[in-house]
Amino acid sequence: MKVGVITLGCDKNTVDSERYAAALVARGAEMTTDLGEAGIIVINTCGFIDAAKKESIDAIVDAGRYKDDGVCRAVVAVGCMVQRHKSELEEALPEVDLFLGASEVDRLLPELEERGLIDEPLEIHPGERIFTGELAHVRYLKVSEGCDHGCAFCAIPLMRGKHRSFALPEVVREAQLLEMQGARELNLVAQDLAHYGRDLRDGSGLASLLRQLVSETTVPWIRMLYLYSTGITPELLETVAREPRIVPYLDMPMQHASDEVLKRMRRPERRGVIRDRVALLRSAIPDVALRTTCIVGFPGETERDFESLLEFLEEVQFDRVGAFTYSPQEGTRAFELRDDVPEEVKRERLERLTELQLAITAERYDRRVGRTVQAIIDRPADASGFAEARTVWQADDIDGITRVRTSAQPGTILDVRIDAVENDYDFEATERRIVSVPPTMERRAGRALPMFAATIGSFGR
Fold this sequence. Notes:
- It is a single chain.
- The chain has helices at residues 11-26, 50-69, 80-92, 108-114, 156-160, 168-180, 206-216, 234-242, 259-265, 271-284, 303-316, 343-366, 441-445, and strands spanning 2-7, 30-31, 40-45, 74-79, 98-101, 138-142, 144-145, 164-165, 185-189, 221-224, 246-251, 289-296, 320-325, 372-379, 386-391, 402-405, 413-422, 426-436.
- The protein is an alpha/beta fold.
- It folds into 3 domains: 2-114, Methylthiotransferase, N-terminal domain (Rossmann fold); 138-366, Alpha-Beta Horseshoe (pyruvate-formate lyase- activating enzyme); 372-438, CATH 2.40.50.140.
- Strands 6-9-10-11-12-13 form a 6-stranded parallel sheet. A 5-stranded parallel sheet has the order 2-1-3-4-5, with helices on both faces. Strands 14-15-16-18-17 form a 5-stranded mixed β-barrel.
- Strand 9, helix 7 (206-216) and strand 10 (221-224) form a beta-alpha-beta unit.
- Helix 6 (168-180) packs parallel to helix 7, helix 7 runs parallel beside helix 8 and helix 11 runs parallel beside helix 12 (343-366).
């Protein structure tokens, strides 16, 4: 039976989908990217904001058409949106054969086996994760599940539960497996990386995890995504500053800069703390790139609150900002608040913020012209002779690309000179020298762990 997997939402969902794929292959399935060939289509949904829910529903409806037009025998919807809205979805989407929320995915295999759609377990499991994306050298390593912060606008704890850290040795073994599968960049993801280890009560923390990943793998780039500023410790700063394989990049969500709005949002930081942490980061980690996210139009946000946010962005000068308008999510504390900012005002504020940040990013990017920095090749040269790469300052899929004329293959790391800024968020660069090339499969297979021995607990955790 061929299986197609569609992943929507965040990078944590990407990790989950790779685990589902591995478990299905272990039961005799064959993965395919052509949904017209798939006997089973699994859609891993996102329920974070309204736009994500719409995208998930559209994907489910599209998949359902393959039951009429293709060989599809079952459509399965899993993940966060199903966790929140299972009963409504079951009523609205009869073409779906199985709905499983994020806490129910351990039923995926038994349900499909009971329907005769997959085989009995194989004696040898090929590993806990199977790559299903486009860039095999760029992988995501989820270090914990759930969240304890309780932000008023966020439904993640309702979908994913309380924060649970994965044991440090298991995370390291998973990183080694990804390295043997060809990973050249590991992106560490969690709702808040800074919370890693607090619940384990064994002395583990983000700094110790980073040190173990450096010592127990040879992956050249390790990148941190989604880290709250309150969790930035001197030990973490020292570790990142000392180790060149941990790229100088942090995605530090702040959501707003008005203390009144931050208080209503139930965020753990205030404006002064965020300012101090940014200054500390830039002092401790030379040339660090900082990204953040902002919500505009939260209930009660006044024009003065919004102007305070703009002033703060202009003062602090983040390299990149991801911004979106507030949408109420059922079950959250903010859902009980009156959504008193009109939609047209939300959109207008989003446009103003985006325009301001575009100018800030342009200024910061212009300062990098003439600099030499490491870049990783993502896609080989096209007909123009330019390959698509990213510098250490550019995270996969969210921070633009760097075009460099080179014959180097994906996964190769180069020193490049930044020549120009293109299309607001992209660089054009010149190759200076090759720093490292991807090892051959033969060399990878000889490292550390046998491929089949690197399984780590339940695939759906």
